Amino acid sequence: MHKPQMLLHQLADLIGGRVVGDPSMVIAGIAPLREASPGQIGFLSNPRYVADLASTHASAVILAPRYEAATAPPSLARVIVDDPYYAMCQVIRHFHDRPYLPSGVSPLASVGQGVTMGRDVSVQPFVVIGERAVIGDRVTLSAGCYIGEEAAIGDDSLLYPNVTVRERVRLGRRVIVHSGTVIGSDGFGYAFHGGLHHKIPQVGTVIIEDDVELGANVTVDRATLGQTVIGRGTKVDNLVQIAHNVTIGERSIIVAQAGISGSTALGKGVVLAGQVGVVGHVTIGDGVRVGAQSGVAQNVSAGQDLSGSPAIPHRQWLAVQATLPKLPELRKRLHRLEEELHALQRQIKRPGRAAETARRRRATRRRSSRA
User: Fold this and answer.
1) What distance, in Å, lies between the first and last C-alpha atoms of the chain?
2) In terms of C-beta density within 10 A (0-12 exposed, 13-18 middle, 19 or more buried), how is residue 295 classed?
3) Residues 191, 196, 199, 200: what is their CA dihedral angle, to the nearest 10 degrees?
4) CB neighbours (10 Å) of residue 265?
5) Measuring CA to CA, which residue among 316, 319, 322 is closest to residue 304?
6) pLDDT at residue number 151
7) What angle in degrees, to the nearest 10, is found between the helix axes of 84-96 and 8-15?
8) 200-257: per-residue pLDDT in tens?
C-alpha cells in the first residue's frame, strides 16, 4: 500500500533536513535520480552520481551539504541532510511500509502438539510447525516454512516462503529470514577411520539474536556440540555459508557468497565482502574489514583492513596489485641485467687467466735456463 503524498517541508521534518527551494512542493514518491519523474524526490549519496543532478526530472533531491552547490536545474529543490543514505531509507519506509495485519493460522498449516503460539500471528498455508515449538507475538511464517520441534521464533520476526528452521534452533526478536535459507542443518563433521568417513553426530544448536537479517539461500549449520551464534544486529547477504560452532559478533556484515569455516570467531562490527573465505579455528577481531574474494588463513587482530589471498594488509595489497602488470617488463629487465653481469664477470676472469699463463711461462723458462 502506497502512502499518500506529502509536502516537501513535511518530508524534511521527517528526515531532519533543511529545505532549499519551495517547501510547499508536493512529493508523491521517491526514485533514483536517473529514473525519477516530476513529483518524486531523488537522492544523492554516492559521488559517482553527482552528474545525474544536471539531467534529473525529479522535483527535489536529498543530498549532503558538500553537494549543495552542484550543477542542477534551477527548479530542483534540495533537502540538505548529513546522511542522505539513511534519509533515503526513512523516506522509502514512509511511502512503502505496510502496517502489519495478522492473518491467523491457516487451516492448511500443520501444527504439532504442544506448540505455543503468541498473539496476532500469521501462519500461511503449508507451514509445518513441529511439536513443542514456540512462536512469538506477531510472527509471520510464510507459505512452505518448516519449524522443527522445540524451535523458538521471537516476537515480530518474519520468515519468507520456504525457510527451514531445524529442531531446537532459537531465533530472537525482529529477525528476518529470506526464502530458501536453512538454519540448523548438520555441521560438516566426519572422522576418518578404517578407510571410511564416519559422520560425527551434530547435536548442538543455532542461536540467532535480535534484529538479525539472513538473505536468501543462506545456510547456518548447527554446532557439533554447543552453539553456532549470530550476534545482535548482524546482516547476512544471499548465498552465505556459516559452518558449525561459528560465532559472529554484533552488527557485523557478511556479503554474498562468503564462507566461514567451523569454530571460527568473528568480533563485533566485522565486514566480510563478497566471496571472502575464512578457514576454521581462527579469530577475527572487532572492526576488521576484509575485501572481496580474499582468503583469511590466520588470526586477525582488531581494526585491520585486509585484501588478497592469502589476506594481507590492504595498503600492501594495493602496492602488490600496482606491481603485477609490470612484472613481464621487470622480468625482461632482470634477464638483461643478469646477462650484463655475466659478461662483466667473464671480462674480469679473462685477465686473470692471461696473467696465470704468463706466470707459468716465466717459470718454465727459468727452469729451462737452469738446466
Assistant:
1) 123
2) middle
3) -20
4) 18
5) 316
6) 98
7) 120
8) 999 999 999 999 999 999 999 999 999 999 999 999 999 999 999 999 999 999 999 9
Q: How confident is the model at residue 368 (pLDDT cuts 50, 70, 90)?
A: low
Report the C-alpha gap between 21 and 291 in whole angstroms.
41
**The predicted structure's pLDDT at residue 3:** 59
Q: Among candidates 159, 195, 209, 152, which has minimal Cα distance to 179?
A: 159
**Cα separation of 52 and 42, whole Å?**
10
- Long-range (24+ apart) CB contacts under 8 A made by 47-52 are none
Q: Is 244 a catalytic residue?
A: yes
For the beta carbon of residue 171, count every other beta carbon within 10 angstroms.
27
Task: Give dist(CA 85, CA 62) in Å, integer.
Answer: 9
C-alpha cell recorded at residue 19: 529545505
Helix, strand or coil for residue 225?
coil
User: Look-up: residue for cell 558538500?
Assistant: 66
C-alpha 22 chain-centroid distance: 40
Is the link from the previous residue into 310 a cis peptide, with omega within 30 of 0?
A: yes
DSSP string for 189-215: -EEEETTEEEEPP---EEEE-TT-EE-
Q: What does the pLDDT read at residue 240?
A: 98
State the residue for C-alpha cell 527551494: 21
Query: How many Å separate Cα 33 from the centre of its chain?
Result: 26
Whole-model pTM: value is 0.87
Single-letter residue type at 188? F
Q: What distance in Å separates the CA atoms of residue 111 and residue 145, rounded to the nearest whole number?
A: 12
Closest Cα to residue 60, out of 76, 44, 81?
A: 76
What one-character DSSP code corresponds to residue 46? S
The catalytic residue among 57, 197, 244, 281 is: 244
